[in-house]
Write a structure and sequence with these properties.
Elements (H helix, E strand, L loop, with lengths): L15 E8 L7 E3 L2 E14 L6 E11 L4 E7 L14 H13 L14
Antiparallel strand pairs: 1-3, 2-3, 3-4, 4-5
Length: 118
Amino acid sequence: MDLSATGDPVVVQEDTQVKVGIDLRPGTLALTYGGRAYEPYHASVTFAGVQQDPWAAQQVTFSAKGTDGKATAVTVDLLTEACDGPRENVPAAIWKVVALAAASAGDLGITYTAPDCA
């Protein structure tokens, strides 16, 4: 392949969304949703940064296998309906996944602190 590229790309932080995917080690996270058990193997976390505000985690989509062995996606919304803060009752293990994704995206300038859900 004959390819060339020039320039100095910069990430724009105005109304920007970034999806960060991480693979999860089998057996390290168990999800129960709608009374069904799932074993996630991948998480895709959507972060948004509006103008100069800090990045916020909006959503996590897990790729998972159900007890029937079928692959499915389980999506967890992290912000309230008004988008003014974190949704209540999001399990601490989900916030750990978000923190792992943020750490893996550190080169993008994402810094993240999980909300105090205690």
